[in-house]
Specification:
homodimer; 7-stranded mixed β-sheet; about 280 residues; Rossmann fold; alpha/beta; globular; EC 2.5.1.16 (chains A, B); about 30% strand; Spermidine Synthase, Chain: A, domain 2; PABS_CS (chains A, B); 9 helices; Polyamine aminopropyltransferase (chains A, B); 5-stranded antiparallel β-sheet
């Protein structure tokens, strides 16, 4: 590989492609679940791929990790017990632990190798793994959620790969029923929900499955994410009761820095473009 | 070329790449200014490239064209005379002419072949070219603006390619001085300003050049745009006076449909993420 090689992810479901200019391959491991590759890029720092799909770059992961955590945590009235299903790169865990009110954050990813690679090539994402409030598990998130004590959780964050392979079981009614049971009455579920430009059907289907599991209110928040197909991504929040009461004053007064998230960005993301809101209506 | 071919634009300045799955090449023309290619894609309709850079797809051009036109036109108090420099695909012209108050919209693109290709492969973008308020010119936009009557224009839209090749002269003080002189006192200049994620320096430099030309207030609005590098793009507004008074009530009451633009999207875009606002401060 030369200094001018380009690494592309050709994303079949959308017929679109994302790529980065690569300096060299740094590592590759075949775990029991998936193939993990690490490249050094010219402009985006390190890049992690799982089964050929871009997962994380040093430069742009803050967009995804901030939006997977802070909107849900600043919507829940008082999040203390948080669980992350997936999220093996530990970036979402780090953001969750920025909230001083969080008493415990469990991260349950099936693949230990993702975290081992993150520790080596994205150490900044793992800097809070030693926090006494953090518990980093390598286990089946579907089983973990099934066995969770009913009404024990405030926020469940599903930080998964695409709904194929190991993550397929994280997008259906059975899993969402486990989440529903494990959440307290005012609990919030948030899940990465792919590109609102080309995968609106997936978002609709996910919301429908969440609805069958008992969730009654949904909120899809778009955000930019260059390393994912189309460069525009989303997370979807679900809760048992009605409405999402954004704790705007607390978000404005937060005592930690963010690069993308802000109270205004959070408010803005709640207004969907007409073509998205019409499709989800 | 087979049905499974992928066409990539490897964007050197950002070290990132965008691509689409292509069915076949439909056309190619070498104009006096640039090479224009048209492809049929599997999922994005037709795709136009200029000198190898993605310009327009059938599926996602509404994002760019709506954001290049409606925010500026709903900020100016009463836009009557509008000029588009570049914009040869005619999509911005179509959006401008949706505003019933616009009395005249001139489109001045140096390359007639861009419009000829758009008429053939993106006819929906050209559907307003016959509007009696429209004037479609093929001429040098820099010279046109230099010769424009002082204080004659309400809104100038610079809908250009990247600041290399034919568009290079559209990003400097001399051109902005011509715009400043041609605009009325309450006039607004809006220009496409590349990716806020990787080309923040370019946005800063553009705003500095606009400032040297006399403009005093700036507003950069980000929006998603999958066919451009990083999938996240921006336009930058500039005016002579202070502040941008968004005519929110008029935007809410608009009598034409938009797919991405709305009063709420416009408001949301005015809140920049911290890493962008800090860089532009």
């Amino acid at each position: 590989m030369t200094a001018s090689d380009w690494l592309h992810e050709n994303f079949d479901p959308a017929g679109s492609s994302i790529g980065f200019r690569i300096k060299r391959k740094l590592d590759e491991v075949q775990s029991p679940f998936q193939k993990i590759e690490i490249y050094a890029s010219t402009d985006w720092g390190n890049v992690m791929l799982i089964d050929g799909a871009m997962m994380v770059t040093t430069r742009d992961n803050f967009l995804y990790h901030e939006m997977m955590s802070h909107p849900a945590l600043f919507t829940h009235p008082d999040p203390k017990n948080v669980v992350i299903i997936g999220g093996g790169d530990c970036g979402t865990l780090r953001e969750v632990l920025r909230h001083p009110g969080v008493a415990k954050a469990v991260q349950c990813d099936i693949d230990e190798q993702v975290t081992r690679m993150a520790e080596k090539y994205f150490p900044e994402l793992c800097e809070s793994n030693g926090d006494p409030r953090a518990e980093v598990l390598f286990d089946d998130g579907i089983a973990w959620m099934k066995n969770a004590a009913p009404g024990s959780l405030d926020v469940v964050i599903v930080d998964s790969t695409d709904p194929v392979g190991p993550a397929e079981g994280l997008f259906n009614k059975a899993f969402f029923e486990s989440c529903f049971r494990a959440l307290k009455d005012d609990g919030i579920l948030v899940q990465q929900s792919e590109s609102p430009l080309v995968l609106l059907d997936l978002i609709k289907e996910m919301r429908a499955e969440m609805g069958k599991a008992g969730f009654t209110t949904f909120q899809t928040l778009p955000f930019p994410q260059p390393c994912y197909p189309t460069g525009w991504w989303s997370c979807t929040l679900a809760r048992k009761g009605q409405g999402f009461d954004f704790r705007e004053a607390d978000a404005r007064a937060k005592d930690f820095a963010t690069k993308y998230y802000s109270a205004d960005i959070h408010k803005g993301a709640q207004s969907l473009p007409p073509f998205v809101s019409e499709a989800l209506a």
